[in-house]
Design a protein that fits this description.
single chain, alpha+beta, SH3 type barrels, Alpha-Beta Plaits, 3 domains, four-stranded antiparallel beta sheet, 12 strands, globular
């Protein structure tokens, strides 16, 4: 059976239990056939148990059976609400399953282009898993191409680009996969620090720029339609709504306001105004003034 078909069955089980809560095996089996998950073929209990094990291994989702009612349910639903890679994978495969059933209207579904540099993902992931250093060919914008050997620590997807966080032997560095000219796994091993966490490393930043910008308590005022945009899609995990009127809402952030963060604020045009700190407000004013000179 093709992996895509198996993944579709995993996603169906997860979403069905997510939607209906507790269900007996017979209830699941009837809905399985009604939804024609396997082209009308029945759901076998042995297959269902194998799928439960695979769902646990792949997504960390536990499907338990209630002893008194013999009903199956997701016993750790919080996994579906965090920002772990398992949730991202689940979301991606769910969309893939929906789109695979929508080929007849493909001309009416508009997607973003796939992330750049994905051809190097497999090699990088193998190096991360096996603890091997990578030999990179790399060309930054406006510079000559060069080669370097690094210890791959983590991957991050940001604005449709994949980035590699790596240790050069002297400092941490971030490399965009779309600027790599080659990627080779070496035989040289490395040891990841026991206390390293990619989530913690990027927790004080928005995006992938991780420089020495000082921490700041940033307060912005969102006007017009922007408050609802920020409420439904927060810019950063530290986002807090601290006040609102019929005309605007104020949000606070505790992070390092790097160029990535400021660029995102500017992308909202007059929908966002920086209130605090004052030096950041002045910096934004200068950036806007420089932009105006080009028009």
């Amino acid at each position: 059976m093709k992996p895509s078909i198996i993944f579709h069955q995993y996603i169906w089980i997860i979403n069905t239990l997510r939607t209906f809560g507790r269900m007996t095996f017979d209830e699941l089996a009837k809905k399985w056939q009604a939804d024609k998950v396997a082209n009308g073929n029945p759901l076998q209990r042995s297959s269902f148990n194998r799928h439960r094990d695979a769902i646990l291994d792949m997504f960390g989702i536990i499907i338990d059976c209630e002893a008194k009612t013999y009903k199956y349910y997701i016993s750790n639903p919080e996994v579906l609400n965090d920002d772990a890679i398992e949730r991202w994978l689940l979301s991606t495969l769910t969309v893939q399953g929906v789109l695979s059933d929508s080929v007849s209207i493909k001309e009416r579904i508009v997607l973003e282009e796939v992330p750049a540099g994905e051809e190097y993902l497999q090699t990088i992931i193998r190096a991360i898993k096996s603890g091997k250093r990578l030999r990179l060919g790399y060309q930054r914008f406006g510079t000559e191409s060069h080669e370097t050997t690094v210890s791959p620590y983590a991957l991050k997807l940001f604005h449709r680009r994949w980035y590699l966080l790596a240790y050069t032997g002297r400092h941490m560095a971030t490399y965009s996969l779309d600027r790599m000219t080659k990627v080779e796994m070496t035989d040289e091993g490395f040891t990841l620090p026991a206390d390293f966490s990619a989530q913690e490393y990027f927790s004080e930043y928005y995006g992938v720029l991780a420089d020495e910008t000082p921490m700041a308590h940033v307060v912005i005022r969102a006007h017009a339609w922007t408050p609802d945009y920020l409420r439904t899609l927060p810019l950063h995990s530290s986002q807090r709504e601290i006040g609102a009127t019929d005309m605007y809402a104020d949000f606070s952030y505790d992070l390092r306001p790097t160029a990535d963060f400021l660029g995102t604020l500017l992308s909202h045009g007059d929908g966002i105004e920086v209130l605090e700190p004052l030096e950041l407000r002045e910096k934004m004013k200068k950036m806007i003034a420089e932009n105006l000179k080009r028009y």
